[in-house]
Amino acid sequence: MNTLPVKNLLKVLATLNPKKIRKYYYASFVPVLVSMALIMQSCLLAKIDRTPYHQTDFYQQFQQQINEVNTDSLYTKTDTIQAGWAKVNITPDEPVAMAGYGNRWGKKYVSVHDSLWVRAFVFDNGYQKAVLLTMDMLIVPPEVTEALEKRLPEIGFTINQTYLTATHTHYGYGGWAKKLVGNIIAGKYRDKLVNQLISRILSAIQQAEARKQKASFGFAQYHAGELVYHRISKQGNIDPWLRVFLIRQQSGATAVITSFAAHATSLPSRQYILSRDYPGALVDSLEKHPDIDFAAFCAGGVGSHSTGGEGEHFEKIGNVAAALSQKITYNLPAISTQYHQKLASVHMPLPLRKPQWRISENWRLRPWVFYGLYGNYPSSLTGLRIGDVTWIGTPCDFAGEMMPAIEKKTNQQLIITSFNGGYIGYITSDTYYDVDHYETRTMNWFGPENGAYFIEAISRLANKL
């Protein structure tokens, strides 16, 4: 290396007094920094796009997608629906990173309080088949959905016949996300874990299909507003309903699928113990009832809802589960069931704005930054019609506060669940879009006006079914 230029520079600097050095610094270096900062800002940041959603290109794409939804299978001559169910343990074989809180930084769990499961329900009317899967996980990760789509044909199903959801426990395992944001929430990606999970999901579907029988179906909902509260605003609307889907096989075997809108976050974030939280305790309680052979839980509109109830930690889990279980078992004899033929499963692509991950009220990171940190995954709404009940799956933490508006537009027996195999952050009421809160600022990735957009999209898809 030639050191002469360096020596000459030192000699020059030695002749300067401190005032001249400061003058030189401010005259040359600071403008360079300012210029670099401006360049970086233009590359990284942009203003929030507040174009009304009805005037956007993605809305025009949505109009095309909803018009292409075909429900002819509902009215094809079919046989009575058969239904079967099964569960498979998906607890990892060894301690792995937990998923649910960024402050864990990928730390592994140290013990298992209760095992994690995937529960599968297969429905078949001789013309159409469908499967409903719910997993004791934070979400159904996009990476898992992609892997499942490749493997389902091995057992005679496709992803378009598959309705996905999760219990949304924040005390499950991770290792299923490839990008930086996913690594922070769920630890480093492990291909072995994903493959193991897929194999167990396929096993659960096969077992459920082997056990299917002609079945009758019923629906009920019970008020449980005392067990949920709005965590963005004390004055916010809540979805207080515990929804119950009852399946009774010809043999007399009975299964219930429940859905509720309270977040499964009853334990401290630094609790390094695997647990299904209150959804798992609820399912266990129901399966101990003499008239219920099998139970499952699906996270409802948890986007802005936290769990109420008395007690702390595992005591609270037990109290909430007991209260919900009692509402179901006490009213179980009053739920009437009927045989049905109508069965349809729909996956409708859901166009969105370009991502707008905000750093302030009016400024966002550019899409390429978001895609680099999180990933670029397709989104969709999923629909499942079983007899008189319509299920709609959303690719997000969907906020239950929007349920009343949707129910007014649909006027049908409706169950809306979160985490359908894609993930686009939180979808909350547009009332809160500019509120500086975790759900509405950090986790609202594709707003504004996604509240109104989802109300319209869900209502129109439900009415199609």
UniProtKB/TrEMBL annotation:
Keywords, sorted A to Z: Hydrolase, Lipid metabolism, Membrane, Sphingolipid metabolism, Transmembrane, Transmembrane helix
One Pfam family in the UniProt entry: Ceramidase_alk
Catalytic activity, as annotated: an N-acylsphing-4-enine + H2O = sphing-4-enine + a fatty acid
Residue span, Neutral/alkaline non-lysosomal ceramidase N-terminal domain: 84-289
Keyword tRNA-binding: no
Ranges that cross the membrane: 24-46
EC code(s) of this entry: 3.5.1.23
Family assignment from sequence similarity: Belongs to the neutral ceramidase family.
PANTHER family: CERAMIDASE, NEUTRAL CERAMIDASE
Full protein name: Neutral ceramidase
Source organism: Rhodocytophaga aerolata
Record lineage: Bacteria, Pseudomonadati, Bacteroidota, Cytophagia, Cytophagales
